[in-house]
Amino acid sequence: MKHFHVASVMLALSLTSTMSLAQSTTDYQDQAKLHDIAKAVSPERIEADIRTLVGFGTRHTLSETESDTQGIGAARRWIKNEFEQISQACGGCLEVYFQAKTISGETRIPDATEVVSVIAVQRGSHDPNRYVLMSGDIDSRISDVMNSTSISPGANDNASGVAGTLEAARVLSKYKFNGSIVYAALAGEEQGLFGGKILAEQAQKDGWRIKAVLNNDMIGNIEGINGVINNTTARIFAEGTRQTETPEEARVRRFTGGEVDSPSRNLARYIDLMADRYIPNLDTMVIYRLDRFGRGGHHRPFNDLGYPGVRIMETNENYNRQHQDIRSENGIDYGDTIEGVNFEYAAKLTALNAVSLAGMAWAPAPPAKVEINGAVKPSTTLNWQALDPKQNPQLKGYKIYWRYTDAPQWQFSRFVGNVNSYTLDNIVIDNYFFGVASVSQDGAESPVVFPGAAGAFGE
Ligand SMILES: [Zn+2]
């Protein structure tokens, strides 16, 4: 998102009102560590991992599991071993495990099949039950979604996402965080989003406080089906109103707003700002949809349970290279082969994930129980629950953000200190959307939380 320059327009109207409004986002404190993280992501390691994953021939969910060189069994064991090696290099900082469930009787999984994801958790120091997740998908497919034996490289869809997730783990495991980070290589995506569903449901059962899911699905293609070739943009898909919204919550939202401020949207805005700040030559497009038109991805099972989650992916998709038998027809090469992946670009999107995960895991938890009032008053008051100082010893205080109702990104902000209520004098509630973020001593910020159920990131 390009930055808005509202102040110059307003100067002509009134200098004093400009001063009161334009507390711009420039008071954000640049984080040197996040620049280091972005630079540490390696296109060469991502390339090597994609080549290894492609080398398993097919990673179809129903493919064979016994071979050590071919099929999804070999692929998941290799991924688990990679995470274990990363963990060894950081003194055992990752908890690595298979997460398996037997699925049967489904259209795309008719016979009993173990769907097995690989999960690695980097446990946070003070708030270990607060999670941010990055995911990619292990499985691949070709034209016939049930073909589990033919070559199915799935280089971009979605070896790129798994390779990015492994690389983010390599880079971030060199640091310690306040909250936990989960790296997930999910299975069964093409057969019906099973791995994501299994992880989301288990997380809910175990009471994980999930604040962000960054689902990476196809992060390496820069040559669009429409002829556009561009490696400087990416898309963040984020749904609008929450899937778990009750009729009563919808009624409240109708009168107070929030249809463009679900936690998934404000997670997307957070990542969008991270791209502006830390990733050279990358501008993200926040797309106000759950996913591509009529299509799905592994963030959805998390959204279904009310967790904030987005899909991060390339801007320019090439359908000749997705879900296709490898072949040549009328001079067009079909198939998701390694030639369709740009490793520098995949590294750029991986870096975007890494700085976003790190920023959130270093920041205090997003504020909970945010409320707002100010109807028929000259001023707007926000209040929120105090964060637990044991879980958030790094807390410096809170920052209120606001923007015009038709602006896509937060425009104004004010750091208000370690308080739990604040009144913005002479700022009329009707004319803006508001939210609150938490800020650490060294400037790491949480996503902005829009008031009420519509915007809540949970406790
Ligand atoms: Zn796919």
TrEMBL record:
Residues 366-459 form the Fibronectin type-III domain. The keyword Signal applies. Keywords: Aminopeptidase, Hydrolase, Metalloprotease, Protease, Secreted, Signal. Residues 1-22 form the signal peptide. It is found in: Secreted. The keyword Coiled coil does not apply. Pfam families: Peptidase_M28. PROSITE patterns: FN3. This is Probable aminopeptidase fused to fibronectin type 3 domain. It comes from Paraglaciecola agarilytica NO2.
